[in-house]
Amino acid sequence: MSPRNANMESSIYEGNDGWWHGRVTMGVKDDGSPDRRHRRARTEAEVKRKVRELEDLRDKGRAPKAGRKPTVEQWMTTYLTDIASLKLKPRSLDDYWSKTRNDIIPGVGKHRVDKLQPEHLERMYRVMLDAGHAPSHVLKVHRILSRALKIAHRRRLIVENVATLVDPPTVDETEANPFTTEQAKAFLEAASKRATFMRWCVGVGMGFRQGETLGLRWPYVDFENELFRPQWQLQRLSWRHGCKDPRGCGAKFHRFAPCHKDCATHRGYKRGCPKPCPKACIGHARACPDRKDGGLVFTRPKTKKSRNAVPIPPPFIPYLREHKTQQEAARAEAADSWAEHRLVFCRPDGRPLDPRQDWEEFKELLAEAGIEDRRLYDGSRHTAGTILNELGVDMPTIMEILRHTQISQTRRYVQGRSHLSKDAMRRMGDHFMPRPADADPAPEPSTETRTETGDSRAARAQRRRRVR
After folding, report:
1. Cα dist. 176→133, 210, 386, 414, 455 in Å?
2. DSSP H or E stretch at residue 75
């Protein structure tokens, strides 16, 4: 009779089924029973290799937990519902859910997390790129999935995060296209004919984000110290179900079959026909009678740095006071129909400005000013940073005004001062190449540092000798 194996020692034997089997003791389960893992192979050498791998994971404390592992779809649902929702901002969480539903689940959702391979992710990314998605979109999907798998690895659901073995698509940084000084003046001149003139002054002249500008309230405008305190921002969030049966609540809106080729129902939709609902669809929360957390909502800015006070340019103060006087007159005229939110920029009835309408107004002003089309961010935040740079303001100060956490981020917002670069290269050329005798003298550059005295070198040396 063979001696009994010692504790934690594995056993290997050939079964009656013709397979070689290995049993590895990993410890105990949550209920206190022994945790014995099984491996099998056609040859004794192969099963020994598998047993050694499992023993190595056990000894290093990296062995996955016992039990059947969830699929990628199940784990992403758990991750977004119970883990990410505790940390992410509402807008970011909506974006995570959108990319999970539309890209991750259709791509690799049926794979078990412990069976997911790098080739699966690479194939999914290639399909997304072929479908016309931008590399930046694919990179965001990769980061979301990698973060979810990192948590799964930390909780020992998987042995390794396979997303770290995949190289996502390379993304070229989006080139900023800010206004020139002349374009900024033309834009504000076109905006001066509208009631929202000060909204665009704050956006272009101070570099406020759209949500921060539309969410600015009078209690956070300090006229005495000439400061804006952007404590809140206005965002549009997706509605969430407030009932206990989300799937049944939106049953009449479910569409499980795709539209036919010549669909006339969604002809006016900018993005075409909507995609069919998944089998376990819990969407359509906007139709829930108890819907919550959606629509235009006031939220805190993403970082603490974003809530720092920003000095108001003194020339803006009289216009802001006049704007407040006009708003108080509109409030008195509206009487009971006024919706009080104490907003600096609002509709004629006091309600918040819709970010979509604000974006459309920006496009209209571009056309009126004769400026080529560009992003709202280019016409506000990038423009403010670039013009501050042209005025000679140093990078740390621009970083404080734009409320960035890193100066490298500020440098991406600010474009170089081309006219100063030309002036510097002109002086470089004059240093090496003599100017023609009949050429006009070069104007004194306004940006060159001057000494405090106009004395010659000999005069300064004579004065030093007297001091000695």
Report:
1. 21, 17, 10, 8, 45
2. helix 72-78
CB 351 within 8 Å of CB 339:
yes
Q: At how many degrees (to 10) do helices 197-206 and 355-369 cross?
A: 80
**Across the beta sheet with 310-311, what order do the strands follow?**
221-222, 227-228, 310-311
CA distance 255 to 266: 13
Of the chain, the end-to-end C-alpha distance in Å amounts to: 107
pTM for this structure? 0.71
With beta carbons less than 8 A apart as the criterion, state whether 217 and 343 touch.
yes
DSSP letter assigned to residue 297: E
CA–CA separation, 347 and 463 (whole Å): 69
203 within 8 A of 230, measured Cβ to Cβ? no
For 423-458, the pLDDT digits (tens) are 777 777 776 776 666 656 655 544 444 444 455 666
| Structure-token pair, residue 217 | 């309230």
CB atoms near residue 4 (< 10 Å): 7
Residue with tokens 């002349």: 182
